[in-house]
Write a structure and sequence with these properties.
The protein is 43% helix and 17% strand. The protein is built from eleven helices and ten strands. It has helices at 11-20, 25-31, 47-59, 86-96, 103-117, 159-171, 193-209, 221-229, 244-251, 261-274, 278-287, and strands spanning 37-45, 63-66, 78-85, 123-125, 130-132, 140-144, 176-180, 214-217, 234-237, 256-259.
């Protein structure tokens, strides 16, 4: 006799493993949802919503963790961490469909999240748009609204030329336009927040007005906040110099965050020190969904 751990990452893995030991096909259908364990984090719940979700999840054998003050309604909002099998989550979805406090709508999001975990899909989801990489490769057009970028510095430095180039890139197949107002070229001069905003904000506003998905490339929380107000979908930071306040901006929004993978590894410790607990966790989670540059 021997014992070994079994890693199952997909429904196909589960089916093959059970077929190998001769499980009945009907049993395979019943057992597959039980072989996947999921952890989901819900945010921005009222105490009433959190308490109902927790009780429903516990009643079907799953686990749920909410803020200490949620039971007594001492907090205004709380997060909720749910743990269970896929089958338990599917049962939770059915329960929540019948509950008040807007939980019927939340059940749809939970169902979608669970389905996506093992579907092989990678979806980039911004504030207003989402892109499914299973359909095709997502293309980001890079637009430098600077006088000194190494590739196109000065060519699209005015709002008119920048918007014109963005439209050209969309016609050429881009899905989103990344606008940057500060060069990362070696030896380039730093740009003050006000100057960076003067360069990029008019362009971002015009693209959003035209329904074009926009990304802001910045290391400054002040620029990120202003871009947030005009509904950019993505915050990009190619040098990973993003400050703690910018991480807070991200937490308050639905922004997708894109960072440079190599430099991110070099600065994770700095971020862990600068941003406590939830901020660090969120930044690392967003890294796993980073936009391709």
């Amino acid at each position: 006799m021997r014992v070994r751990s079994l890693e199952i990452k997909s429904h196909e893995d589960a089916r093959l493993e059970m077929e190998r030991i001769g499980v009945d096909p009907a049993g395979i259908r019943l057992m597959t949802p039980k072989q996947f364990h999921c952890n989901l984090k819900l945010e921005g719940l009222s105490p009433a919503q959190a308490n109902v979700i927790k009780q429903d999840m516990l009643s079907i054998g799953g686990e749920a963790a909410i803020a200490k003050g949620a039971v007594s309604c001492e907090v205004k909002t709380t997060g909720c961490i749910l743990s269970g099998t896929v089958k338990q989550f599917l049962r939770l979805v059915e329960k929540l469909k019948l509950q008040p406090y807007g939980l019927s709508g939340l059940s749809v999001s939970i169902n979608e999240a669970v389905e996506n975990l093992y579907s092989g899909r990678l979806i980039f989801k911004g504030r207003t748009k989402k892109w499914d990489t299973r359909v095709r490769t997502v293309v980001m057009g890079i637009l430098n609204v600077t006088p000194d970028s190494f590739f196109d510095g000065g060519r699209f430095f005015t709002k008119e030329r920048a918007v014109e180039r963005a439209l050209e890139m969309m016609d050429e197949g881009a899905d989103i336009i990344d606008i940057g107002g500060e060069s990362t070229r070696p030896g380039s001069a730093a740009v003050e927040k006000e100057e960076e905003l003067r360069r990029v904000l008019p362009v971002v506003e015009e693209l959003v007005k035209r329904g074009i998905p926009a990304s802001i490339d910045t290391t400054k929380s002040g620029v990120a906040e202003e871009a947030l107000h005009v509904e950019v979908d993505v915050l990009c930071d190619v040098v990973v110099e993003i400050d703690e306040r910018a991480l807070t901006v991200v937490l308050r929004s639905d922004l997708l965050v894109g960072v440079d993978a190599v430099r991110w590894r070099l600065t994770r410790f700095r971020l862990a020190v600068a941003a406590a607990g939830e901020l660090t966790h969120t930044a690392e989670r967003q890294h796993s969904r980073r936009a391709v540059r």
